Amino acid sequence: MTAGPQSAPGTSAVAGPRKILVVSLWLRDGAVAEFEAFERRVAEIQARHGGRIERAIRATSPLANSTEPFEVHVVSFPDDVSLAAYRSDPETRALADERAAVIARTVIVEGVDVPGY
Fold first, then answer.
1. How many CA atoms lie within 13 A of 99 on its CB side?
2. DSSP sequence for 59-94
3. What is the reported pTM?
């Protein structure tokens, strides 16, 4: 018989569901290189808080970056506390002007994973 996973006192051996964000992004015209550089910096900050960009999907439709987003990200964090810590991180806040220069619009849907269908 093998022992199951060990956990620290007062913690669960099984982590709860990760906090999921589906982030739709519209860029300012011609800012693709700047956007990609910005997102690499953001991903580093997210990682320090347990966050990660699970998927990044760039639209190929003729409507991309007009009525449809330029790119959609599936982002996850361990929990609401980690997400809040990322959002309040001084480095995240310091990127506000850079973000405004490259991203015209953002729509975020927050949720959790559900079992597959």
1. 13
2. --STTBTTTB-SEEEEEEESSHHHHHHHHH-HHHHH
3. 0.83
